[in-house]
Hints:
Blueprint: H1 6-9, E1 13-14, E2 25-30, E3 33-38, E4 48-50, E5 53-60, E6 64-67, E7 70-72, E8 98-102, H2 112-120, E9 124-128, H3 130-142, E10 147-151
Amino acid sequence: MKETPASETRQSVKITLDEDHSRLGIYAYNPGEIVVIRPNEEFDAQDSGFGNKTLKTETLTQSLIIMPHRLISDWAPRNIEQLEQQHFEALFPKPPQILLLGTGVAHHWPAPQVLSSLTNQGVAVEVMDTAAACRTYAILASDGRDVGAALLID
């Protein structure tokens, strides 16, 4: 049997839809882009339809931080090499209890000092590739958890 690297097998991920559209969510992930769902109160007549539900989606092509009620769509670092401690300042003064760090198409560990401001504040940080972080965020957010995802696009 031929082995295929994980980066070649995981091309795109469509996330299972959460029925509560009162918060930000992740609809899909493809390498280089993340499709987010906007809350119901932001819907207008040009929204895309899904079954009998109307969803407002936005495709983002740069790194982002998403929490159930906050989106930072222009997060500066694009990859793990650019990630620095000050990039997480946008989460303060009230960071989420759990932060998922999506490190791009492959799993990479950041330098320990990069996450120290978060861990010193008691934030549980989980590091994984961006596709896994998108899936995990969708599950934890739908469960009502205080979660955020910092997602590197490259």
